[in-house]
Amino acid sequence: MKKDAEKFLFKYLNNASPTGFESSGQKIWLDYIKPYVDETFTDTYGTAVGVINPKAEYKVVIEAHADEISWFVNYISPEGYIYVIRNGGSDHQIAPSMRVNIHTKKGFVKGVFGWPAIHVRDKSSEPAPSLKNIFIDCGCSSKEEVEKLGIHVGCVITFEDELMILNGKYYCGRALDNRIGGFAIAQVARSITESKTKLPFGLYIVNSVQEEIGLRGAEMIAERIKPNVAIITDVCHDTTAPMYEKKEEGETKCGLGPVLTYGPAVQNNLLEMLINVAEKAKVPFQRNATSRYTGTDTDAFAYSNSGVASALISIPLKYMHTTVETVDKKDVENVSNLMHEFLKQLPNNHDFKYIK
What we know:
Strand content: 25-35%
CATH superfamily of the largest domain: Zn peptidases
Helix content: 25-40%
Distance between the termini: 42 Å
CATH topology of the largest domain: Aminopeptidase
Number of helices: 9
Oligomer: single chain
């Protein structure tokens, strides 16, 4: 990977981008892709798009989502402790002892999720962390003191953790779900431009907002772009990590390549084309099956505009929705490689009708 690309990755991942408050991260992403696209735009809620060949009638989307899980201030006690609700699928079990940034109009306010010491907890009836008992201490002894810092109900809260590299080959940190996908599609835009690949269609590189609370950003942008084809990238579980049941979750592992998903929202002819491209280009890949829905932005694109041929390429990830989400560098690179190879081989105006 080029040094400037990895520099962008660290800057992008270390910046907070909670659901509904993605703007600062979107600016970083847009600044990076601008040299590699013909135009950019954003929508009302902050989804960011770069376009190559914007005047073409046939439109292809490659997409990831930009938002990360977080918390909202929900209640401030008279003693100055802050109680929270989720913004997305935040995990209450990992919260105690975590450092946080509380986002206010005055800037970040530091805080910690407190927890009583092991010495004073009754082992026979030890309480588990839950939304009813986790709390944030920001060094104040009254509600009034908290409010003077600019904190109020509705302020968003993110964990304070930075991206790191494990053993030279894994990226590890918070919010890889799914800004690592945003990084991957940005590299596709770059490789298309730097290789001087001429595409006979319009390519829309889409970084959507609000996936973590119901695919909302993808729903909105799909209606605006009205694409013919959509390739979505997100993360999936490394089920070889401890405490997974492969008979229920399937078997996918970091380092063995992108994961191609079978499921109702995935258009079969498009999926077969991706598989053929991967085999021809010798890009390693894995397979996964999902029942009813994928739970990703694939569902939003597939069922928009009377039906859009859509497929999902996932990056295997360990420890989802924690501050130590972990992916293999090779898998990230191969997602970009697979997308690039697919775009090179996709004929203009290709008809993905299921029954011909």
